[in-house]
Amino acid sequence: MELALAARLPGADVLPARLHEAMRYSVLGGGKRIRPALVFATAHAVGLTEEDVEAAACAIELVHVYSLVHDDLPAMDDDDLRRGRPTCHKAYDEATAVLVGDALQTLAFQVLARDPALPAAAAIRLRLVELLAEASGTFGMAGGQAIDLAAQGRKLDLVQVEEMHARKTGALIRVSVMMAAACVPALDPRWQHALAGFVNPIGLAFQIQDDLLDVLGDATTLGKATGADSERSKPTHPSVIGIEASQDRVRLLHQQAFDALAPLGPRADLLRSLADWLLARRY
User: Fold this and answer.
1) CA-based Rg of the chain, rounded to a whole angstrom?
2) Residue 205 carries which DSSP code?
């Protein structure tokens, strides 16, 4: 995945060199690559190769990294550390970080439009663009971040917290699966339904686990500061329903995701393994 991302980023010696260097710093600085892993596991489940969906995985990861760069800015979460290194605006400056996010977002859609590795059919490429745009916009990630910022210091109920998470984090998790599925013309509707039934609970479980790690995790292992949600008075699952109930919720969602994959049989084993890791992860 690192080689695939590096190949699609402008070289650090290409003008404007500082911007391109900062883009590569942000994208190639490590990370769990969960969204690409979901793309590849879904591809395996529906009979595609990793090469068939590599460009789509890169596009999703570029959007994800752009969101992290912007989230870390002083106007948002004001974080100094990301993936064990200074955040983009600390390593460079705030203006450069804004431009990095802008450039990564537009590069993602350029990849979907032009990358030769994707299916040539215009209808498939248009659908991929549509899916990623929807997941990134006001009904997805950007909208979830807006709700998150507006909610700081306020009390939200569980339904409101889960709506926020479904947009802020769940949308890109969901689209990682659905974009891979969209690369298969006339996919069996039962499989499409099974994949949607899997990824919705997994997206929420992933965010709840993040909330728990912010309370229970180790900053050295996580590569970022812990306790930030509490300091900013952010509504999270642990703050709304408690730690134990949040852990129970993760287990329930995990089981729902597993149950949804039944129609796919053993071809979905990679997705099941990934779900197991998401449940047990400590970083």
Assistant:
1) 18
2) H
How many angstroms separate the most distant Cα atoms in the chain? 52
Element (H, E) at 81: strand 81-82
Instruction: Give the alpha-carbon dihedral of 142, 222, 81, 69, to 10 degrees.
Output: -20
CA distances from 109 to 5, 118, 133, 134 (A): 14, 12, 9, 12
> Which of 58, 79, 39, 70 is closest to 231 using CA atoms?
79
Residue type, 241: I
DSSP designation for 86: E
Closest CA to 28 of 2, 60, 55, 58: 2
Q: Are 198 and 173 in contact (CB under 8 A)?
A: no
Reading the block at residue 138, the tokens are 């006001």
The domain locations on the chain are 2-7+17-280
Is 209's pLDDT higher than 60? Answer: yes
Looking at residue 105, its pLDDT comes to: 97
Report DSSP letters for 54-70, one per residue.
HHHHHHHHHHHHHHHHH
How confident is the model over 222-267, as pLDDT tens digits?
454 555 555 556 788 888 888 989 889 888 999 999 999 999 999 9
- pTM for this predicted structure: 0.88
Rounded Cα distance between 167 and 163, Å, is 7
Asked whether 245 and 212 are in contact (CB, 8 A), the reply is: no
Q: Which of 44, 30, 21 is nearest to 2 (CA)?
A: 30
- Return the CATH fold of 2-7+17-280: Farnesyl Diphosphate Synthase (1.10.600)
The phi, psi pair for 121, rounded to 5°, reads -60, 125
148-161 per-position pLDDT tens digit? 888 877 788 888 88
| Token pair of 111 as six digits | 């990849």
- Residue partners of 190: CB distance under 8 A and separation at least 6: 263
